C-alpha cells in the first residue's frame, strides 16, 4: 500500500502479517494434510503420516484465505469511503486488473513452465495461466470480488442486508468446480469480501472490538466447529444423494461459521490499544506488511521447488523438514520481494 505511515490501518498491518505467516506455515505443512503430494521417495510412503502436522496445517488454513479476503474488502471500503471518485470503471475495474491480474498472468506463466506439463495443448496452457496456476488462483478470484462490489454499488438497488444473505447462501453451494475463470471460487469467498467492505462503509468497526476473553473464546469455538467438527463431517460416507447434499451444506456452514469466528477474533485482537501502540513504535512491522503481497507470490514457488524439484526432502526427517522448509521459504520470499521492489518493473507488479 502506497500510504504514508501515519495513515496506515494498524489493524490491517497486524492481520496481514499474521495471515502471511500462517500462509507460508500452511504450505510448508501441506504435504501432511493431503493438500500436496508426498515429496519423499517411494520407500518413505508413510513419512507424511504425522497426525499432529496434519491437524496443524488444517488449523492454520481453515480461516486464512477467508480473513485475507475480508481484509481486501475492508481496504477497498476504506479507499472508496475516503475517495468515492474511485468507484468508476477506470478507477476500480481497470486499476484492480493492473494490480491483481497482470501479476497473476506474469507469475502464472513462470509457474506453468516450472511445475506443469508443457506438452499440453496451447489453449489448455493459456486457460490455466489466465485462471491462475497453483496458489495464484486467488488473484482472479479477488478481482471478481472487486467487480462484484462495483456492480452492486453502481447498478443493483437492493438492501445491503439482503445482498449479504445472498452472498452467504452462495458460499454454501460449493460452486468452485462449476464456474470458469475462478468465478466459482468468487461465489465461495465473496461473502468475506463483502463483509469487510460493509464494515468499513457503514462504520461497523467499533462494534467488533472485543475484549481478549471474547476473542479467545471465538478461537476455541473455531477449533471445535471450524476444524474438528468440520473434519468429522468431511469423513462421513454415504451413497445417498440427499445425505451427500446435507453433508456438503453442513461442512460449508461449519466452514463459514469458523471463518467468521476467526475473522472477528483477529479483528478484535488487532484493535487492542496495546497492539496499536506497539506497532506505531516499531515501524519495521509496517515495512514487513508492505512485503506481504510479494511473499504471497514467491513462497509457493520456493516450497514447491524444494519439495518436488530437488533432493531437499531426503536431507531431513519427516519431523524436521517442514520447519526448515517454512523458515527457508519465509526468508527467501522476503529476500526475493525486497530485490524485486528495487526495480521499476517489480514495483509495478507487486509494489
The helix tally amounts to 15
Tally of distinct domains: 3
Major sheet attributes: none
Question: Roughly how much helix do the residues carry, as a percent range?
Answer: over 70%
Reading the helices and strands in chain order gives HHHHHHHHHHHHHHH
The N- to C-terminal Cα distance equals: 7 Å
The shape is globular
Strand percentage lies at under 5%
**Spans of at least 5 consecutive residues with low confidence:** 1-7
Radius of gyration computed on alpha carbons: 20 Å
Average residue-wise pLDDT: 90
Number of strands: 0
The helix/strand class is: mainly alpha
Written description of the protein model:
The protein is mainly α. It folds into 3 domains: 1-62 and 291-351, no CATH class; 63-209, no CATH class; 217-268. It is 71% helix and 0% strand. The protein contains 15 helices and no strands. It has helices at residues 10-33, 51-61, 64-82, 89-115, 122-130, 138-155, 160-171, 183-201, 212-234, 241-270, 273-280, 284-289, 292-308, 321-340, 344-350. Helix 1 (10-33) packs across helix 14 and helix 6 crosses helix 8. It starts with 9 loop residues before the first helix and ends with a helix. The relative contact order is 0.14.
Annotation keywords:
3 domains; 0% strand; disordered N terminus; 351 residues; mainly alpha; 71% helix
Amino acid at each position: 500500500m502506497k500510504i504514508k505511515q501515519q495513515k496506515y490501518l494498524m489493524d490491517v498491518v497486524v492481520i496481514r502479517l499474521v495471515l502471511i505467516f500462517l500462509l507460508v506455515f500452511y504450505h510448508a505443512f501441506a504435504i501432511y494434510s493431503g493438500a500436496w503430494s508426498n515429496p519423499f521417495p517411494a520407500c518413505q510412503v508413510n513419512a507424511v503420516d504425522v497426525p499432529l502436522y496434519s491437524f496443524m496445517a488444517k488449523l492454520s488454513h481453515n480461516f486464512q484465505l477467508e480473513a485475507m479476503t475480508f481484509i481486501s474488502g475492508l481496504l477497498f471500503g476504506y479507499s472508496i469511503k475516503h475517495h468515492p471518485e474511485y468507484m468508476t470503471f477506470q478507477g476500480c475495474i481497470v486499476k484492480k486488473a493492473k494490480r491483481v491480474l497482470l501479476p497473476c498472468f506474469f507469475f502464472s506463466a513462470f509457474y506453468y513452465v516450472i511445475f506443469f506439463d508443457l506438452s499440453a495443448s496451447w489453449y489448455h496452457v493459456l486457460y490455466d495461466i489466465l485462471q491462475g496456476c497453483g496458489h495464484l488462483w486467488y488473484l482472479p478470484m479477488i478481482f471478481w470480488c472487486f467487480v462484484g462490489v462495483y456492480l452492486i454499488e453502481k447498478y443493483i438497488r437492493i438492501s445491503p442486508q439482503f445482498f449479504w444473505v445472498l452472498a452467504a447462501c452462495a458460499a454454501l453451494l460449493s460452486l468452485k468446480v462449476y464456474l470458469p475463470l475462478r468465478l466459482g471460487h468468487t461465489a465461495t469467498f465473496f461473502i468475506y469480501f463483502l463483509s469487510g467492505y460493509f464494515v468499513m462503509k457503514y462504520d461497523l468497526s467499533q462494534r467488533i472490538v472485543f475484549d481478549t476473553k471474547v476473542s479467545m473464546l471465538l478461537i476455541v469455538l473455531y477449533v471445535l466447529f471450524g476444524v474438528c467438527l468440520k473434519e468429522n463431517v468431511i469423513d462421513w460416507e454415504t451413497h445417498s444423494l440427499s445425505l451427500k447434499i446435507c453433508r456438503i451444506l453442513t461442512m460449508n456452514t461449519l466452514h463459514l461459521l469458523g471463518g467468521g469466528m476467526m475473522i472477528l477474533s483477529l479483528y478484535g485482537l488487532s484493535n487492542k490499544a496495546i497492539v496499536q501502540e506497539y506497532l506505531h513504535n516499531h515501524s519495521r512491522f509496517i515495512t514487513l506488511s508492505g512485503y506481504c503481497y510479494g511473499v504471497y507470490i514467491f513462497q509457493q514457488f520456493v516450497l514447491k521447488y524444494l519439495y518436488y524439484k530437488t533432493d531437499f526432502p531426503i536431507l531431513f526427517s519427516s519431523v524436521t523438514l517442514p520447519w526448515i522448509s517454512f523458515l527457508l521459504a519465509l526468508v527467501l520470499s522476503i529476500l526475493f520481494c525486497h530485490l524485486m521492489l528495487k526495480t521499476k518493473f517489480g514495483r509495478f507488479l507487486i509494489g
